[in-house]
Design a protein that fits this description.
There is one protein chain. The protein has 2 domains: 21-144 and 218-241, P-loop containing nucleotide triphosphate hydrolases (Rossmann fold); 148-215, 2-Layer Sandwich (Alpha-Beta Plaits), CATH 3.30.70. The protein has helices at 24-37, 54-58, 66-72, 76-79, 97-100, 104-118, 134-142, 154-171, 186-204, 218-226, 230-233, 238-253; strands at 11-16, 42-47, 81-84, 87-90, 123-128, 145-150, 177-183, 209-215. The chain is of the alpha/beta class. The structure holds adenosine-5'-triphosphate and magnesium ion (MG). The site of magnesium ion has 4 residues, from helix 1.
Amino acid sequence: MTMIASDKGTQVICVSSGKGGVGKTSITVNVALALAQAGKRVLLVDGDLGLANVDIVLGLSVKHTVRETVEAGAALADILVQIEPGFFVLPASSGVPEMASLSVEEQNFLTNALEDMMGDFDYVLIDCAAGIGESVLWFNRWAEHSAVILAPDPTSMTDAYALIKVMAAQFGRQEFHVIVNNVKSQKEGAELFKSMAAVLKNFLRIEPQLLGIMPSDAAVSRAIRAQKPFFQAAPDAKASQAVKVLAERIIAQF
Ligand SMILES: Nc1ncnc2c1ncn2[C@@H]1O[C@H](COP(=O)(O)OP(=O)(O)OP(=O)(O)O)[C@@H](O)[C@H]1O
Ligand SMILES: [Mg+2]
């Protein structure tokens, strides 16, 4: 690849959620496609290192994974899979528990390798594992920006709160970007954000930013079953329109 990053430099955005199954992989994959369609160069890192997700949503059959870099020193550039012009994926391994808990040396080795080639991209998106495990914390700490996904159920709210609290305590992160997913209306999304923001302000003195609201849309689950991103399979779906808006906000803000 001989590409040159834009003036802003590479922006790294880590997408996490606390609770699992709230839409991290669906959102990051489709936003990556929308950013690439807008002419940006995007690297999507499957941050669920031991239980890969991104390859499934994209219907990829992956031959090489980040495990070969961590365990055998393979060059990251040889592992990347090009999906579209300007859109590359760094695939993770599935069913490899030791990849989920890398030593500090292994974490550093991986982030150094990422830093070496990051300059080729405008955006690096990380689709994190669920929970508040080690990899979630060190990926977020490494990333410049932390985006947290909320869904309407109460446990998603409490888990997102817990994740934000841990990040603030462990490495002093104060800026968080919230994406509300799977809501029936913009109003529902705005209200969820408002109640989360109130709790964060009250207990942690943190004022999160609202990055976007994603509607509940059958096109999302259909696309997962078909292993084809909804942004491509159903460009006119409500979810695809919302992803486009989300990508525009990302370009404007980061
Ligand atoms: N906006 C939406 N509308 C309808 N269904 C959705 C939406 N977002 C997510 N889903 C459904 O929720 C399920 C989980 O989505 P996804 O795999 O993207 O979540 P995740 O946060 O990556 O999960 P995990 O924590 O397991 O990695 C999917 O099967 C999808 O069908
Ligand atoms: Mg996922």
